[in-house]
Amino acid sequence: MNSTAVAPRDTGVLVVGACQAGIQLACSLREYGYTAPITVVGAEQHAPYQRPPLSKTLLHAATSPDAIALRSEAFYADHGIRLVLGERIIRVDRGDGGAGVAYAHSGRSFAFDRLALTVGARPRRLPVPGADLAGVHYLRDADDALALRAALAEAVDVLVIGGGFIGLEVAASARGLGCEVTVALADNRLLERAVGVPTSEFFLDAHIRRGVRVHLAAPPVRLLDDGHGRVRGAELPDGSVLTADLVVVGIGAVPRTELAEQLGLTVDNGIVVNEYGLASDGTTVAAGDCVACPPPVDLPDGPARIRFESVNTAIEQAKTAAALLADRPAPYWAVPWFWSDQYDLKLQVAGLSTGHDRYVVRGEPDTEKFAVLYYRGGHLVAGDFVNRAADFLAVRSALAAGRTIPPEAATDTTVPLKKLIADGPRQAVA
Question: Which helix (H) or strand (E) holds 27?
C-alpha cells in the first residue's frame, strides 16, 4: 500500500463489485441524499443482474442475463451512477482519511474519497484428484450458468456434489430437463447449515420421490477420467463408483478478501465489519457475501461474527453501509431470511434456528405444505416454511417485532399464525 496516494477532491464513493450489494449501496446513497460522484466497478461484462435465477430460470429457459438485470442502463445515467464493467480491481493505494486510487488489471485507475467493498465470494473448489477434468462445473455467475445450461442440454447422468441450496436447486433444474441426477455430499443431511432436521428429512424424501439418488456422508474422493480428459464418474469413500458425464460442484463459497488484506483490514472468514458496515480501518465499508458481521439477532453462546450468503442480507447490509457514508448512520439489526425454489417447492426460512431447544411442526410434510417453528427458552427464534407463504410472513413479522407465537397453539392449522402472535421478552431487531 502506498501511503502517499491522494485522490482528487470530491471524487466521491468508489464501489468495487457490481453485484446486488454494490448496486443497492449506490442506489441507497442517492436515496439518502448523497450528491457526490458514485462509481461502481465490476469485473463481469454483463450489466448487474439478479443472482437467484442462476440456478433456476437461467438453467432451463432460453433467456439471457439481460432478462434478469437489476436496473436499466437509463437508470444509472438518470441517478448519476457511473457503471464501469469488465474491469477487475487488483490494487488499491490509499492515503490518510480514506481517500486513494484503485487500479484495474487493464491499468485504468479510479480515484475515490471513500471506498466500499462489495466483492462477493468465489466457489469453493473441490479438493480431489480429477477436479480439473472437462465436464466439471461450478455455478457462481452468469457465464457459469450459461455454460452449465449448454452442458445440461447434452448431459445424461448428472452428479451434483453438495447438498446446500445451490446443489439442490441445480439438481431440481436438471431433473426438470430430463437428466438422471445423483447428489453426493459430505454432510449427514441435506441443507444441514440452513434448516432443522424435519425440513432436511422432508427435502431428502422430496428429491428421492422425484427420482434423484442421494448419498449422504459420502463426499467423492476422486473424479474419474474417461481417457480423453473428460469426467466419467466419481469414486465414493467406500470404493463404489457413480457414473456421470457432467459434474456440478456446490460445496460453498470463499469470501474474496484479497483487496481487504492488501489494505490491512481485519479479515476472519470475510471482511470484518461492525454493525454499521465499517471495516477495521474506520473508513472503508463493506457489504454482501464478502462480509463477516455481528449476528443481527440474539445468539446466546453463538459466534461473535457471522457471514451470510443471502441476497436479502446483502441488500440490508448495503443499505446500512450507504447510510454511514451518507452521514445517516443506523446499525444493521434485521431478521435474516432466505428462500429456495426446488421443483414446485418454495422453501422460506426466517430467523436463525441456531441453539434452539424445541421445535413444533405445523401441517403435514407429506402434503408438501408445512412449517417448522423453532424455540429457545420457550420463545420463537426461527421457522422453516414449505409452500406456506402466509406463515412465513407472520413469523418474520413476529421476530422483527420481538414477539413470539405460543408453540402449543402453533400446530393448529385452522388458525392463521398472524392471529397467534403474542408479546415476548426479546427486543425488536428491525
Answer: helix 20-31
CA trace torsion 50, 55, 59, 63 (10° rounding): -10
Please name the residues in contact with 345: beta carbons below 8 A apart, sequence gap of 6 or more: 203, 206, 368, 386, 387
Q: What pLDDT digit, counting tens, does each position of 268-285 carry?
A: 999 999 999 999 999 999
Chain-centroid distance of CA 209 in Å reads 27
CA distance 391 to 371: 8
Three-state secondary-structure class, residue 373? strand
Amino acid (1-letter code) at residue 208: I
∠ CA 374-310-340, rounded to 5°:
70
Secondary structure, 3-state, 11-22:
CCEEEECCCHHH
How are strands ordered across the β-sheet holding 13-16?
81-84, 38-41, 13-16, 114-117, 285-286
Is residue 270 within 8 Å of residue 260, measured between CB atoms? no
DSSP 122-155: EEPPP-STTTTSBTEEE-SSHHHHHHHHHHHTT-
Helices assigned H by DSSP within 180-274: 197-209, 258-262
Confidence class of residue 9 from pLDDT cuts 50, 70 and 90? Answer: very low
Read off the pLDDT of residues 313-328 as tens digits, 9 standing for 90 and up: 999 999 999 999 999 9
Report yes or no: 292 and 308 within 8 Å, Cβ to Cβ: no
DSSP 59-84: HHSS--GGGGBSS-HHHHHHTTEEEE
Task: Enumerate the H helices of 255-388 as residue ranges.
Answer: 258-262, 311-325
Which regions of 162-301 does DSSP assign to beta strands (E)? 180-184, 213-215, 222-225, 231-235, 241-243, 246-249, 253-255, 271-272, 285-286, 291-292
Rounded to an integer, what is the distance from CA 205 to the centroid of its chain? Answer: 25
Contacts of residue 230, Cβ cutoff 8 Å, sequence gap at least 6: 133, 134, 135, 245
Confirm whether pTM is higher than 0.85.
yes
Residue whose C-alpha cell is 402466509? 390
